[in-house]
Amino acid sequence: MPSFTPNSELDLLFSADLIPTEVTSQLGSDLHMRPLAKTDLSRSHLSVLSVLTATPDVSTAQYAQAFEGMRACPNAYFTLVIVNRNTDQIVGVGCVFIEQKFIRGLGKVGHIEDIAVDKSMQGRKLGLRIINALTTISEKVGCYKTILNCSDSNIPFYQKCGFEKKENEMALYH
Ligand code: ACO
């Protein structure tokens, strides 16, 4: 019997039906991909993200409030996770945020954000599977393109995921 929590027992951010089976079928038998759950703070969500940047602790209530804030914007936040079926802990995460535009006949753009794979699991194609799932979702919900910002050192990874380098990123920190 697997020890991970099945989707049916979780409060999920979006419908798991949107996650493509072509991607989930390529995961190892020890892994499960699903939408973010309201209780994922207790499954190492933030510690997995800490390979990417600073992720200070938040309380269970603060986490749940942020989750509900995202879910209150239907078809905007698609955060998914990969869970180790033996430990019920998260080993990889990623998000595509859908931006509604007025240009291009009310077009939509998918923004890929916060991709992270636990150090012990890097190199097993989990990053690639997360990107493939997110770009499929972006396309399914009607986006005409999917974009992201990354460091120079991650350019080869995103090229392997099918992305090409375009234009520049500008930032103003507050
Ligand atoms: N440089 C060159 N090639 C790379 C790199 C890299 N930095 N990372 C992965 N690759 C290659 C792999 O070798 C593999 O190539 P192959 O198909 O020829 O074997 C291919 O890309 C797919 O790699 P994965 O195994 O799927 O990569 P992984 O699961 O390790 O995930 C990731 C990659 C997400 C970058 C991971 O290393 C990570 O979490 N890094 C720290 C956090 C981070 O930088 N996240 C991305 C920030 S950008 C954003 O969030 C939009």
TrEMBL record:
<comment type="subunit">
    <text>Homodimer.</text>
</comment>
<feature type="domain" description="N-acetyltransferase">
    <location>
        <begin position="31"/>
        <end position="174"/>
    </location>
</feature>
<comment type="similarity">
    <text>Belongs to the acetyltransferase family. GNA1 subfamily.</text>
</comment>
<dbReference type="InterPro" id="IPR016181">
    <property type="entry name" value="Acyl_CoA_acyltransferase"/>
</dbReference>
<keyword id="KW-0472">Membrane</keyword>
<keyword id="KW-0012">Acyltransferase</keyword>
<dbReference type="GO" id="GO:0004343">
    <property type="term" value="F:glucosamine 6-phosphate N-acetyltransferase activity"/>
</dbReference>
<dbReference type="GO" id="GO:0005789">
    <property type="term" value="C:endoplasmic reticulum membrane"/>
</dbReference>
<dbReference type="GO" id="GO:0006048">
    <property type="term" value="P:UDP-N-acetylglucosamine biosynthetic process"/>
</dbReference>
<dbReference type="Pfam" id="PF00583">
    <property type="entry name" value="Acetyltransf_1"/>
</dbReference>
<keyword id="KW-0808">Transferase</keyword>
<keyword id="KW-0256">Endoplasmic reticulum</keyword>
<comment type="pathway">
    <text>Nucleotide-sugar biosynthesis; UDP-N-acetyl-alpha-D-glucosamine biosynthesis; N-acetyl-alpha-D-glucosamine 1-phosphate from alpha-D-glucosamine 6-phosphate (route I): step 1/2.</text>
</comment>
<protein>
    <recommendedName>
        <fullName>Glucosamine 6-phosphate N-acetyltransferase</fullName>
        <ecNumber>2.3.1.4</ecNumber>
    </recommendedName>
</protein>
<dbReference type="InterPro" id="IPR039143">
    <property type="entry name" value="GNPNAT1-like"/>
</dbReference>
<dbReference type="InterPro" id="IPR000182">
    <property type="entry name" value="GNAT_dom"/>
</dbReference>
